[in-house]
Amino acid sequence: MKRRTVLHAMGALAAVGALSGAGLAPAMAQARKVLVIASNQDVPNFDPHIATGYSASAFLRNVYDSLVRVEGNPVKVVPSLAESWTVSPDGMEYTFKLSPAAKFTDGSPVTSADVKYSFDRLIRLAKGNAWMVAGIIDTNSVIPVDATTVKVKLVKPFAAFLQVLPWLWVVNAKEVEANKGSDDGQTYLRSNVAGSGAFRIKRAEPGNLYEFEKVANPWKTGGGNLTGAIWRIIRETSNQRLAVQRGEAHFALDLTAEDMDALKDKPGVVSVVEPEFRTFSIKMNTEYGPLADINLRKAISYAFDYKSMEESAGYQQLMVGPLPHGILGHDPNLPVPRTDLAKAKEYLAKSKSPNGGIKLTMVHVSGLEQQRRFALVLLDSLKKINIDLDIKPMVWPDMVASTASPDKMADFFPVYQTANYGDPDNIAFAAYHSSRNGNWQNPVYKSAKVDDLIMQGRAETDETKRKAIYLEFQKQVVDDAPDIFGVLEKRKLAIRSDVSGFVFTPVASNAIEFFPLSLK
């Protein structure tokens, strides 16, 4: 472990007020109950209607609130800003009763007008998590009944509506309007928070740390004893492991199987290895460059060494198509590419590069060892069909920026998709609907047929019919070969034993929620 990283991690644990190289004594920091989380991912944006990714989800769920929350395993939807709700018999109208105690950090109450403003802004911007309700609600859907009652009328049925609500954040309408500018408040919210969460952002140092402090007298009751938290950027997973092992961090979020093995029986460390709906695939640039050629994509899909990927991952199983095992509609018998060099060369001969002889590029998150290993598996696989690979580590915000247009995207873009709700729509829409183009979840892939199937699936409420739709969806995506379908890794977290109140939830499990947690 690099000495500089050790000092940074120790400084993070010590810091509560003004952070400095020396920091406070660790004992003082512990007395002030500051949770330290080691992650290799920066927060790309503070805007709750734009930012996505696990670091953004962790940030937003601690400084903002939504109508409902998710918790537990199995997952259940529980009250948040809404203390109760009712649903019409046809499932098309939801009525939420807001908690009269709910208030923003400036002390003003959270009202039905704030809910409407937030949902309307989300739909207007059509960014961030807007995909979750695209075509389901519009700017006429949210109707304030009185200050603490709000109705939501769906445009079309959506079986997973309650499950997506935890990720639709409510902002302080008056604060955003006062700072609206010419871009609907995007400039302001990029670096400011207008939320009601139990924590506020105290310091942001991209590439280094994000420091949170607990709000005085938060409106939510109960919770743990934390006075603050620090999201610390530690790029190398081995350094994250050592930080937890030495007591310099309380959580490590990006560990490899080898890291978890090394932590077994280490005093003061609790290892969490749990299944969840979390896919890993290597997306190919279907719109620009050599991989716009479907025959070349299929050649690569059959040349890829799936066994080596499986062995390098640990705590995993190979994906069978685009959906995770166990989710509604997944087809475990779906025919998918497996290593077959003869078939790879057959497709290569049909491509515009029949003899190979080209060089492609793959990016991966800097310091994320597992992605680097997968890139090396791809490198070795491509050599067998006379294709070279340039592997480029990048920090996450730069990777996100590179997906803005096909010409900026690398040939290969690795993506972990962690479900925010346990429904096939989550992965299907986020990762394969064309409206997501220009976003890290689906940079470039588009298909009118797949779009239509996805929209049918999210509107259909009959479970048998939904399954049939998603079976066809999976077949069509595999036939288009937009991804190398990789592995379903179990979530791997390392936690110090002096942390209490943490309950594993198999959706967004690495977007740690601070409020329930305590330190001894």
Q: How much strand? A: 15-25%
Q: What would you call the shape?
A: globular
Compute the number of structural domains. 3
> Which architecture of the largest domain would the CATH scheme give at its second level?
Roll
The CATH superfamily of the largest domain is known as Dipeptide-binding Protein, Domain 3
As for the CATH topology of the largest domain, it is Dipeptide-binding Protein, domain 3
| Alpha-carbon distance between the two ends | 27 Å
Low-pLDDT segments: 1-28
The total beta strand count reads 23
Helix amount? 25-40%
Spatial strand sequence of the major β-sheet: 10-11-12-1-13-21-14
Computed CA radius of gyration, to the nearest angstrom:
23 Å
The averaged pLDDT comes out at 92
Overall SS class: alpha+beta
CATH class of the largest domain: Alpha Beta
Q: Please give the count of helices.
A: 17
Query: Describe the biggest sheet?
Result: 7 strands, mixed
